[in-house]
Design a protein that fits this description.
about 425 residues, alpha/beta, Rossmann fold, eight-stranded mixed β-sheet, six-stranded parallel β-sheet, 13 helices, globular, transferase, Glyco_trans_4-like_N, glycosyltransferase activity
């Protein structure tokens, strides 16, 4: 039976159906700070709120490993923290030993006896769970948040080896996701990309979703010009392009930049800001609490995302829920969120002059036009409601056929 979820009220999906035992497998999970970890946490919490029994397997966040009841996003559930090793080329990443992943998975599966396993990557935890779940006849759903290009800088591999390693990584992804009954990725662009790289077919485009009610838009008249970026302070985010763009903006606009997040390039980028003569206009916050992050978005004028490898960009969605205009690279999934001239602008990837021009356009808008952009961002984010995301995954967990929701329809159809 075809279950069309695109127009149904999100709080009525699957309302009368029995709760499920769901085991989520994640190679990155809080306290890690990244989109995949945030999604896995919000997914688990949302499923608990809907009455399901939820368990998570993830690498231990330190040398302390074992089984714990943890609280994430306001919900409590069991997390199997598997013994892990630190990946020293990265500033925080820990990983499970690959040759132990199936033994861990077998033990956890036999203890939990889940109705469904939902892996968040194919890398180590996901690979072990998928293979052991299939042996036990347990349905596996897979979600891909991973692009090898985003991790390659943290491997210290010489450049001549990077392309073959990326090809091998996609081949490995194909072998694991090929075991899944259904596979998803956060946007249509990301789903198409995964199909092209792995020869998988029928990959669903299911938004990570966001609870827009957690964010506070401000429609007060602006008193300054603040550009904000939220994300890892690492090479794949191309923050250097943003710094050069800010340096090129007319000084009379008194544009300030707030970089919210931490990462391995913090010191290099601080030095770059000094070299560009803008250190007094750039605030590197480091890691912040959720409340501090939301406050930074509320007080900003415009959000900038220079990354070229975003499979969806939860940070951009959070900015939209805060009613910010968006200026983002015209790459990967970002064009699904940014509609030219309506809720922001797309710039040529890597082109700091184009980014500076697009930021200047937003910063110099008359107040009524700026308000229109802010309202457009709010209107568009409604299609990414996390309750809809949860309902679709519930249907996939039960083996039902779903229709992917439309999350990138033209804003011309949505904004009066």
């Amino acid at each position: 039976m075809l279950t069309d979820l695109s127009d149904s009220p999100p709080d009525t999906f699957s309302a009368a159906k029995a709760p499920l035992r769901v085991l989520i497998g994640a190679d990155t999970f809080p306290p890690d700070v990244n989109g995949a970890a945030n999604f896995a946490s919000r997914l688990a919490a949302g499923l608990v709120d809907r009455g399901h029994d939820v368990f998570v397997e993830a690498p231990a966040a330190s040398r302390k490993h074992g089984t714990f009841v943890e609280e994430h996003d306001g919900a409590r559930f069991t997390v199997y923290r598997v013994y892990s090793w630190r990946w020293y080329p990265h500033d925080w990443l820990r990983f499970v030993l690959p040759w132990r992943s199936q033994a861990h998975a077998a033990r956890i599966l036999d203890e939990v006896k889940p109705d469904v396993v939902h892996i968040q990557s194919h890398i180590v935890v996901g690979r072990g769970l998928a293979r052991q779940a299939v042996k036990r006849g347990i349905r596996v759903v897979g979600t891909n948040h991973f692009m090898p290009e985003n991790m390659i800088d943290h491997t210290k591999l010489p450049h001549f080896l990077r392309k073959p390693v990326i090809r091998a990584a996609w081949a490995d992804a194909a072998s694991t996701f090929g075991l899944c009954e259904s596979v998803t990725s956060p946007s249509r662009k990301a789903a198409d990309f995964l199909e092209a790289e792995t020869n998988l077919v029928g990959v669903h485009a299911i938004s990570c979703g966001i609870d827009a009610a957690l964010y506070t838009p401000s429609f007060e008249k602006r008193t300054g010009n603040t550009i904000v970026f939220v994300g890892r302070v690492s090479g794949e985010k191309h923050i250097d392009v943003l710094l050069r763009a800010v340096a090129a903006i007319d000084p009379s606009l008194d544009a300030k930049l707030e970089i919210v997040g931490g990462g391995d390039q913090m010191n290099q980028l601080k030095q770059m800001a000094k070299d560009l003569g803008i250190a007094d206009r750039v605030n590197f916050t480091g890691y912040v609490t959720d409340e501090e992050l939301r406050a930074a978005l509320t007080r900003a004028t415009v959000f900038a995302m220079p990354s070229i490898a975003e499979l969806q960009s939860i940070a951009t969605m959070e900015a939209m829920a805060s009613a910010l205009p968006i200026v983002a690279a015209d790459a990967m999934a970002l064009p699904h969120l940014v509609h030219e001239g309506r809720n922001g602008h797309l710039f040529t990837p890597g082109d700091s002059a184009d980014l500076a021009a697009k930021l200047t356009d937003v910063l110099t808008l008359p107040d009524d036009e700026l308000m229109a952009m802010k309202k457009a961002s709010l209107n568009y984010i409604a299609a990414h409601d996390i309750q809809r995301t949860l309902s679709i995954f519930e249907s996939l967990y039960r083996g039902e056929t779903v229709t992917d929701p439309v999350t990138d329809a033209s804003l011309d159809e949505q904004v009066p």
